[in-house]
């Protein structure tokens, strides 16, 4: 049987997790919360004391008691790493394997969560389940941007260490590890130019709003302006039929017939959807690398997935080590051009 | 501080786990074990009593005290499923995703372990680490047969529920879930015959001694005899160079030039190593299915990976439910032919 203080503490933590009180929000005065919970002011004060000691709430004169909005990392042992990611694509599979390798070295268990569908709310649900089962060090591989990722802040407040992979976050509650997309696009454009391409075509999905793709497209547009290359962005639906893909590919091939052109795919699947064979006059380039690209004669960009996984796990360890002094950081990796 | 009884109990459990005493082995008499551990006979008797109550040892007159060799399943809650498997190949990735789906439905955590290299001893090491951290329901995707898998028996005795996937076991300490390889080979041979093939060539690895491959090859040889087809087994090293693969593929193509022939690949990677394009006179068939096979014009066999993952998790639940009444079972699944 939990003591009254524990019950009040758990109830308030639950309300914070559920989003009733956001980071920085003011909490009810002790007297009011005692009425709300049918307990005494002494009980509420004790619960507040404990939550303050845990870094979940702060007492600020003259503002009263607020939910914390500075993110102290939890400093407990790294016994398990929670990894929230999709599968089974080869790139994600290799990432999972690399994180598993790091966990073995640290003698930590790897707890895997696969959101289906891969949306922010599903990721959050898995994260909450892991956190309540004691998995308090999480690596989250970003999902669709149509989700307020700041709700992950609440997990941070409740003592969860967070690293986001391949997902640029709007807040400072998680470390970021990912590809240096700007450098990647710059390297591919330079290579395309050196290969004789006169016109650059960036192909992105029309219906996949993830940060990585958005960053790559922005970098493409910026690099065009910088280098004075001719170019354009073309969008294709992820759900395009085979006939639509053929038509789209034929249009791109027509561009190559006018002048040597380069198609830069936002990732490997988009090029694989479009092309089965090399096309004369059309160089293929990809911000990604899978063995099948070689058959298309495409230039790929190999992401150092092992080093990126290590950086993510290391970031969790740093969070634990720094505790109250932790500040969110960004760690970007350069890729390596791979010729077919 | 642990009591003396607990210390003795833990020491003996450790010795069983380390293999000093195997299932069915006789343990030292109480007096002798007391001397060995520098404790009293009363302490050892209490430790033996507790281990007997936990089903780890049995007292048999007139044989004395032995390590258990009947496998009672542990009946605790299914809070987490440990999955020991390789990644990142697409087939294993899909299996992991399917197990993850089952875990979410049961509100269990999925703890993933990837042995590197993928050998029995590495698998066992991961299994022991999981078990000692409280993950006591394990699905193990088999590895090389050059390992005495019976050492997993000891884990069973210490209260771990086990399901082996895609790995025929020599013992009765785990449930088995996998493909019905005999039916799969029979279906592929019948299809090849119906397609007009007169000569059947089974291609296997020369240096990968896993049960699945061995079963498939045996089934091929048995089916040849049954159906009166002409045929042969050809072996290729997993580490073959591109030049060796081309030479090997040319030899197979020559067989097709003599008479319409069918090449049955033990799995998809072996065919993908050999062929990039369809070959006249040579039908390609595969005990496996990946999308890339369509480009080879190969007939694949789709394994019902979702149903197999469900069966594995369900087997763990059954073990928990049956407890002392559990008996190892075999669950084999039929595949479905997929034309290119």
From TrEMBL, chains A, B:
Coiled coil (residue ranges): none
Swiss-Prot/TrEMBL keywords: DNA-binding, Transcription, Transcription regulation
Pfam families to which the protein is assigned, alphabetical: GntR
Protein name in the entry: Regulatory GntR family protein
Family annotation (PROSITE patterns): HTH_GNTR
Domain HTH gntR-type: 2-70
CDD domains, per database record: WHTH_GntR (cd07377)
A single GO molecular function term of this UniProt record: DNA binding
